[in-house]
């Protein structure tokens, strides 16, 4: 079978699942909170007088909880299948995100803690609607062009970055920041959930690519315990930590950062849209390159791009073209990083325990993406400028990309598990 025929075969069988997955990622808990919370800073300062650090702390709450729960939700997807985990979590995420609109209007001390508690609920429920779940199914449908398929799947975050900031600004300006949460929650509830219900599923055993199966038809791969004894697991973990710590705060604080430099809210929203285009390009280009070249040759140069973004953002003022370029390069590298987490998990550790291992590698992404925004905000609150943390971020991006050069070649095969891993809710293997 020729390369083009294999491409058509994989995509002809899996395109509806991929389409549903793109919408699930776009409307899930991975992009939506990060794309809206930055625009709540100014209205919440005006209403409550809270500091930037206090206002952005919920994204840390959400991220830390989600990161700690990622291995658990990944193991549920391994055991019971992706469909149940992804769709139920998508429903819970939409409802809990909408509930943030119920934050009290009174300027009481308890209001801040109620607001935080609502974000706790989002973190507890939403993680199953992130790529931790959706990417497992795509890895099971695609092998020959897995990198491109994962790139397309993760375009969902690009779509969110393009659409959601403008939707959030419009909702805040016309209805208020509380109502904005309810309006944005319609995306998972009214779009992704019904489409996912009708289209999204894992492949049946006979539909899986033969390359991910043993002779007996079982998925192959190492266990989480074996993976965690492999130095490559920790190199990937460390790389993700460096990149996420540098990226998360720059992304979340971008609207406030641009406001400090004289850009209006609509211009900042346009920059965030350009950032989304960068993520879009990064997803596709990185995915296509991963199918053709070893990851180190792809990852290192692409993950150095946001260092230039941080350099462009230094200083007291910025013109829109420079801001747009900084946003695009930052987004491009973010697209590359998210592709790499899913791709490297499958290539270095196999599919038998993919959910658990991906969940553990998602943990530094969630943790440091969550801690980074309040670190950026705290630096701004205490020094009056984002420049000190942007200067450090330049080194974080370069170090994080360089670590991946140490991983070495992909394994040629994996051990076969003793038993099929996916069971139904009664515990019967499927």
List keywords for this structure.
disordered C terminus; disordered N terminus; 0% strand; Growth Hormone, Chain: A; 430 residues; globular; mainly alpha
Please outline the helices and strands.
Blueprint: H1 3-26, H2 32-36, H3 41-48, H4 52-80, H5 82-99, H6 109-126, H7 131-141, H8 146-153, H9 155-174, H10 177-199, H11 224-228, H12 231-252, H13 254-260, H14 265-290, H15 295-303, H16 305-313, H17 320-349, H18 354-383, H19 387-403
Helix pairs in contact: 1-7, 1-9, 1-10, 4-5, 4-6, 4-18, 5-6, 5-7, 5-10, 7-8, 8-14, 8-17, 9-10, 9-14, 12-13, 12-17, 12-18, 12-19, 13-14, 14-15, 14-17, 15-17, 15-19, 16-17, 16-19, 17-18, 18-19
Task: Offer a concise description of the structure.
The protein is an all-alpha fold and 430 residues long. It contains 19 helices and no strands.
How is this structure best described in words?
- By secondary structure, the protein is an all-alpha fold.
- It has a single domain (9-203, 219-406), classed as MFS general substrate transporter like domains (Growth Hormone, Chain: A).
- The chain is 74% helix and 0% strand.
- The protein contains 19 helices and no strands.
- It has helices at 3-26, 32-36, 41-48, 52-80, 82-99, 109-126, 131-141, 146-153, 155-174, 177-199, 224-228, 231-252, 254-260, 265-290, 295-303, 305-313, 320-349, 354-383, 387-403.
- α18 runs antiparallel to α19.
Note the overall shape. Answer: globular
Could you state the CATH homologous superfamily?
MFS general substrate transporter like domains
SSE order, as H and E?
HHHHHHHHHHHHHHHHHHH
The residue fraction in helices comes out at over 70%
- Domain count: the total is 1
* Poorly predicted runs of 5 or more residues: 1-7, 419-430
């Amino acid at each position: 079978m020729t390369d083009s025929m294999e491409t058509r075969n994989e995509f002809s069988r899996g395109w509806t699942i991929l389409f549903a997955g793109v919408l699930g990622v776009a409307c899930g808990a991975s992009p939506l909170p990060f794309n809206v919370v930055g625009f709540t800073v100014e209205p919440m300062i005006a209403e409550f007088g809270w500091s930037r650090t206090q206002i952005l702390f919920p994204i840390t709450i959400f991220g830390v909880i989600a990161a700690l729960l990622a291995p658990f939700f990944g193991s549920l997807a391994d055991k019971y299948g992706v469909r149940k985990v992804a769709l139920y979590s998508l429903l819970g995420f939409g409802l809990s995100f909408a509930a943030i609109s119920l934050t009290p209007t009174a300027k009481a001390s308890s209001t801040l803690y109620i607001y935080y508690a609502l974000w706790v609920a989002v973190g507890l429920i939403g993680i199953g609607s992130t790529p931790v779940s959706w990417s497992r199914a795509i890895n099971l449908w695609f092998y020959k062009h897995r990198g491109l398929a994962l790139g397309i799947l993760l375009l969902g975050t690009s779509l969110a970055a393009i659409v959601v900031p403008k939707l959030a600004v419009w909702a805040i300006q016309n209805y208020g920041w509380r109502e904005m949460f309810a309006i944005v929650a319609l995306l998972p509830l009214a779009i992704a959930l019904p489409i996912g219900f009708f289209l999204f599923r894992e492949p049946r055993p006979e539909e899986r690519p033969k390359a991910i199966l043993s002779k007996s038809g079982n998925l192959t791969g190492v266990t989480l315990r074996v993976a965690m004894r492999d130095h490559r697991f920790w190199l990937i973990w460390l790389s993700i930590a460096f990149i996420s710590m540098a990226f998360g705060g720059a992304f979340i604080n971008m609207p406030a950062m641009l406001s400090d430099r004289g850009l209006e809210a609509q211009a900042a929203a346009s920059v965030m849209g350009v950032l989304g285009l960068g993520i879009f390009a990064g997803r596709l280009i990185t995915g296509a390159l991963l199918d053709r070249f070893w990851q180190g040759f792809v990852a290192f140069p692409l993950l150095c791009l946001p260092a230039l973004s941080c350099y462009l953002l230094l200083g007291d003022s910025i013109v829109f073209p420079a801001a747009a370029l900084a946003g695009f390069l930052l987004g491009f590298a973010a697209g590359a990083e998210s592709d790499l987490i899913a791709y490297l998990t499958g290539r270095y550790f196999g599919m038998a325990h993919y959910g658990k291992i991906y969940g553990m590698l998602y943990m530094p992404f969630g943790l440091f993406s969550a801690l980074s925004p309040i670190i950026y905000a705290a630096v701004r609150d205490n020094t009056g400028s984002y420049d000190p943390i942007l200067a450090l971020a330049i080194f974080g991006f370069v170090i994080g990309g360089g670590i991946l050069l140490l991983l070495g070649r992909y394994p040629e095969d994996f051990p076969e598990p003793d038993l099929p891993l996916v069971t139904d809710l009664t515990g019967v293997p499927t």
